[in-house]
Structure formats: structure tokens, C-alpha cells
């Protein structure tokens, strides 16, 4: 149990960075809109405070409200990482980058939380939490990557690791020692990185104008005898 507390502390300390504030946990404890709080909001797990945050909490933490997709989004990119990407002409993330997407669902409740990040320490902490607290923790190897699945406190969790290979070949020119002729050769630079996607699914169906429009388009296609273009049609 002591190890679980240490893991949770590491995760919640890491989450403070995304708000660019040292007072994240205090703000996220405010729940002034009861309709948005999940039934088992008192249960703690990685990023549970994001799941149980109200709209005003998310707004205070600089989340952007995407009304068309009915979700809240927060993206953080390290400034030095952006500069390095510009100088190298390669746009790759750094360890402190992340994106958090809070999807709203039916009945004014949260449908899911998806966190895309690049920090291996948070990745390992989430795995440890699942191993120690879930009886159905499952690991599925996927080439160079892996997928972890488990349930806890009535929620379904997935954690996916992928190795994003980015290699750039550049031509390098120079001159011979006596400078009588020029030389040229190719060099390959490796910008590959590890990517992690952690998802909390509450079981509440997602709801948005975008999804309603897609459903209407599928209904029209079905009426014309055409196949659906929704993701479910490919399952």
C-alpha cells in the first residue's frame, strides 16, 4: 500500500506541471457543479482529479473548450523543444510535452479522459498502479510497443506505448584536404521518440454535435444502401 501512495504522489506531482501552476491539486479539489462529478469521485487513481474536475476548474487551468466536439483540451509544448524543432526542421516532442482531452458525454457527465505524454516515469507509474490495484491487469505486446488494459473503481483503463521512428537523412558537403575537389556524403540523424497514450473510460457514451452529424450522415448513407463511414463500421 505504501508503494501505491508513492506512485500516486509521483503522478499527481507530474500533473501539476500541465497547469503551469504549483496550486493545481488545490484548484482541482473544487467541485462546484455536482452534475459533472462522477459517482465514485472519492476514489483516487492516476488523473482522477482531471476526470472529476468541473468546467470552471478546467477553464481555470487553461483548458480550451471545443464546443463542436463537446470536449476540453489542454496542450503543452516545451518552449526550448519548439526552438530545437525549428532549428532541426523536425517537429518532435520532448519529455515535458503533453495533451489532455476531456470528452463530455450524455447526461452532463464525463465520457473519457485521454492523456498523450512522453515521460517514461509517468508511464511506469501508471503501470505500477494498475499492477498493484487491478485484478485484471493485462499486457499485450505490439511489435516495439505495448498495450495495457485493466478496470478499477468501475472505470476501464488503457495505456498504450508506441515507438515513433523519425530518421532524417541529410546531404553533407565539404572539400578535400588539398581543396582541389568537393566531397559529399549522406548522414542520418535519429529523432525517434517514445509516445504514451493513457485513457480513462467511464462507460458514459460520448455526446457532441460532431457525433450527431456523423450519425445523420451514416443514416443517409444507409438509406441509400451505402456502407457506413463511421469507425464502428470497420470493427
Offer a quick outline of the entry:
The chain is an alpha+beta fold. The protein has helices at residues 2-15, 24-28, 48-51, 55-60, 79-88, 120-133, 209-223; strands at residues 64-66, 71-76, 98-104, 110-117, 138-142, 145-152, 155-164, 167-175, 182-190, 193-201.
The secondary-structure element order is HHHHEEHEEHEEEEEEH
Mean pLDDT: 79
Distance between the termini: 39 Å
What's the assembly state of these chains?
single chain
Main sheet: strand order: 1-2-3-4-10-7-6-5
Query: How many DSSP H or I helices?
Result: 7
Q: Name the structural class.
A: alpha+beta
Which blocks of ≥5 consecutive residues have pLDDT under 50?
Answer: 1-37
Biggest beta sheet attributes: 8 strands, antiparallel
Beta fraction: 25-35%
Whole-angstrom Rg = 22 Å
Anisotropy-based shape: extended
Number of domains: 1
Query: In which range does the helix fraction lie?
Result: 25-40%
Number of strand segments: 10
Would you kindly provide a written description of the structure presented here, covering whatever features stand out?
By secondary structure, the chain is α+β, with helices and mostly antiparallel strands. The chain has one domain. The protein is 29% helix and 31% strand. The chain contains 7 helices and 10 strands. The protein has helices at residues 2-15, 24-28, 48-51, 55-60, 79-88, 120-133, 209-223, and strands spanning 64-66, 71-76, 98-104, 110-117, 138-142, 145-152, 155-164, 167-175, 182-190, 193-201. The strands form 2 sheets. Strands 1-2-3-4-10-7-6-5 form an 8-stranded antiparallel β-sheet. The two termini are 39 Å apart.
